[in-house]
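Write out the bound-state structure for adenosine-5'-diphosphate.
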Amino acid sequence: MDITAIYPGSFDPATLGHLDIIERASKLFARVVVAISESSNTKRFAFPEEKRLEMLEKIVKPFPNVSVTTFGGLLTSFARSRGSAVLVRGLRAISDFEYEFQMASMNRYLAQEIETVFMMTSPKYHYLSSSIVKEIARLQGDISGLVPPELFEDVRACFPGP
Ligand code: ADP
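---
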């Protein structure tokens, strides 16, 4: 089947865990659209949306069927506007489950034809989150095993240190 999957998230910043999901999803679906949530009143981001877009564009270059965009408003409306019936989300731990279950259930309520597909994290990335990357970078720690090499400079520049 010719399925376009949407992989939505904050990607503040993108990590090797996100990239792993993108790569695996690109093998399962005809097209993957990485959809970056726009800045909102409820969530504060360390990286502005243009920067998050620029960073993701750098790391998806090797995957010809993957594109990146930002979106605002309802995810289900965005998915419909792209003709997509599949949302991809990653699961790291049981702690992710409750939130993801709630979001998937709400999205199903809003749009019955859209299916959420969960991909388990690769074991080597189960501890990895954007928040932990920001914490390590803020404390001037080594981020080299956490984000793709193309993003080292961008992440370090955001946390220049004392
Ligand atoms: P959001 O704010 O929407 O949760 P994130 O950018 O934090 O956005 O995450 C986007 C998706 O990627 C989520 O489904 C999240 O569970 C998943 N994800 C984040 N880090 C990892 C990882 N290390 N391994 C697998 N999935 C991950």
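---
The domain at 4-126 is CATH 3.40.50.620 (Rossmann fold).
The first strand starts at residue 4 and ends at 9.
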